Amino acid sequence: MKISIVVTQEEHFKFAQEICDTIESSALLRGTGIAKRTPEYIQKKMSNGDAMIALADGKFAGFCYIESWEHGKFVAHSGLIVHPDYRSLGLAKKIKSKVFDYSLKRYPDAKIFGITTGLAVMKINSELGYKPVPFSELTTDPSFWAGCKTCTNFPILQSKENKMCLCTGMLYDPKEKQKNPPRHPFNEAVLSRLKKIKQALFLNKILSFFV
């Protein structure tokens, strides 16, 4: 099986609906919140060359797109997804690495960031040189945070004035001198424990309103 990862073009528009459906179904299975995407939005990213798609013998295998904020000061990778038929092949890491390298060329001065609840994505980001940061180090562009409105955790984000949520913020600054391997090694046990603590704190906060 040959899998290729390429920058998207209009010829890939036909996969937009399948990409959206796969992203949503994956989030439901994991029981996590997610910002919903529309086929039209995915197609816009495709036509602008701000996305990459993995194809296996002409079939959709994986996808990720790029968003820029504050006039290119920040860049985020969103919608990273692998079709169920092609999971457990290390494809998510390959797509993320390709998009990461592509972003550095397309937006050389931008800080690359992301917010996620997924430990697998945190691990990939860490291996690329991202570091965990508070939300205050991420973009303040309201349109970015508005994209979280369809996430089930949005009320939590609102209650914390966009400063904290169940997601973990991660940032790669190209101006920082990077080390190989990255100086921010991923510790799954520690991050998993922190994630559970954060969830418990938010849950106690919510329950306190009903006591």
UniProtKB/TrEMBL annotation:
<dbReference type="Pfam" id="PF00583">
    <property type="entry name" value="Acetyltransf_1"/>
</dbReference>
<dbReference type="InterPro" id="IPR016181">
    <property type="entry name" value="Acyl_CoA_acyltransferase"/>
</dbReference>
<dbReference type="GO" id="GO:0016747">
    <property type="term" value="F:acyltransferase activity, transferring groups other than amino-acyl groups"/>
</dbReference>
<feature type="domain" description="N-acetyltransferase">
    <location>
        <begin position="11"/>
        <end position="151"/>
    </location>
</feature>
<dbReference type="InterPro" id="IPR000182">
    <property type="entry name" value="GNAT_dom"/>
</dbReference>
<protein>
    <submittedName>
        <fullName>GNAT family N-acetyltransferase</fullName>
    </submittedName>
</protein>
